[in-house]
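Fold sample X.
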Amino acid sequence: MNRVPNPLIASLVEDLAPVAPLKRRNGWLVALVAVGATVLGVGLYEGLWQAALAGNAAPIFFVTNGLLLLLGLAAAAAVLSLASPAVGNRQDAPKWATAMVAIIPLTAVLTTIAAGHAIADLFDSRSMYCLTSGMLASLLTFAAMTWWLRRGAPVSTGVANLWAGIAAGAIGSFAYGLSCPIDSVEHLGVWHIAPVALCGALGRMVLPRLTRW
């Protein structure tokens, strides 16, 4: 059977080349290396809070940082999954993790009001330092998530970019939080959670330009 070559089809496929499929375990390796390197960097630059290492911090310190780590890992898992789209690719885990973390700033605001203080009293001597430090500590994870999304083919780019930003903010705030000596719910609930929201917004607004395919 003779086939007539189609020049249009030929022009479309002449530059195509096979690529290696994305492997989820490699994505996890990238994410975990980013977490470990960020914690190590914070430890070397800021030093870890010795009272927390000795178990003498307030319980909310461990609760907040534990939830931030879980949120960061759940959001990173969503990014790794969304980079390789599939039918029925639901991302419920990071949604529940976000809801759990959101309880902490809500508690901080309610306890401040219940104590008869103004919202302005949530500011303290380390407020802006912790906010900016948490965001700076998110840069490595932000870069890792961006790189993975660029390698993949995310269809729900808006959702993928949002979770990438949240993963970076949560992991960065967790890593920096290990060095912060303030363990009140008011401080942790506002200034250690704010980087997550800000990085999520940045991921949603900035990453589409970097992950477009």
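Fold sample Y, listed below.
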Amino acid sequence: MVLELLLLAVLVVLAYVAYRQWSNQGGGVSAPAPTGPGGIEQVGVGGVIQLPPFGDDLDPRDVEVTARHVYDQDGYRWYELEGQSGSGTVWLDVERDDELETSVTLKRLRLDEIGLAAEAVEQLKPGARVEFDGRVFHLGEQGRARFLPNGDSARAETLVFWDLEGEDDRHDLSIERWDQEYRVYLSQRLSPERIRVYRTSHPE
């Protein structure tokens, strides 16, 4: 009787060990979304992230995401996470082309602040040079896209954009035309690996 109980106990232990190994290899329940590189792509409303120091700040910045906007260019999509931190509103662009790219808006500007008139913007050609704030930028891409506020296609708007890349490989300028209104953004590129994802959405 004792021997039978011992054999039963051994079988139970072996079955438990086998189950744990199967679970760790991905059987049964799917793994949670990653919080390392690429985890930022799963962040939506209610998510909490920490950005590394950028701009003139010396400290990381915790951000709670309040909206996830979508840009759609003929089926190719990228995202803008809008959130709140202790120092105000933060806009983080998240785009995957050949690799994952993220950038944070430093300033929102007017056309005259970068020394351009509307007519000059419309005539920009690939490679065109623009100087602002002691930095040199070159036009990399120009196109048209739809903007879906918080992913809502029913409220979609169309915009024309000009993306200018900084020679310092850290900063970029973006010019957007919404109807007849021009908006300019100075942004700084961030390494996705340095963005910490604490939570991807509101807790259930």
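Sample Y note: The radius of gyration is 24 Å.
Also: The chain has two helices and eleven strands.
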